[in-house]
Give the backbone structure.
Amino acid sequence: MTEFLASCEIIDTEHPYVIRRGQELRAKNAMLTAINCFDFVRDRIPHCRDIATSLTPLCASETLRDRTGFCYAKSHLLAALLRVNRIPSGLGYMRLTDPKNESGYSLHCFNTIYLEPFGWVKADCRGNNDQVKTQFDPPGESLAHYPDLYRGEYFLPGNYATALPSVVGAYRKSRDLDYLRRHLPDDL
């Protein structure tokens, strides 16, 4: 579990803003703290496609500062807030059809959260809109999307302690939001 509690470049739990916000969201037990963290990221950090912005944060602290991000950035922030509160959290990915991406697919990121007595639970803090409604209510799982195998979509195997190198690479190469949108990774 150590790696799912650790700070890293992308899930920067040692950043003062992340620590402060994580402490503000702390409740009397792990379940209530996880709900507070999830609700905060889902409801208070809009997905960048849902608002008019050119910002493309990646790290948890950047996402908190900019108050927006793609699913990747939002998931990095949720993982960091949970880890500040000693709740193990990882990242999961699914490959989905994406006509705006040059490959026709892109990865969607969600969180994995370890809570007793449920074990690892998937949580998707992408943000609700007219097409997406997610909640955090373990042991149930509520995701913004579900893969359609007939369309070549699938869950990537694994539970990742930090962002995939392909995700970090796409962000590092991007010149702006439009470029990033067209070049999001579609696999490992």
Summary: The chain has one domain: 2-162. The helical segments are 16-25, 30-44, 60-66, 71-84, 165-173, 177-182. The radius of gyration is 15 Å.
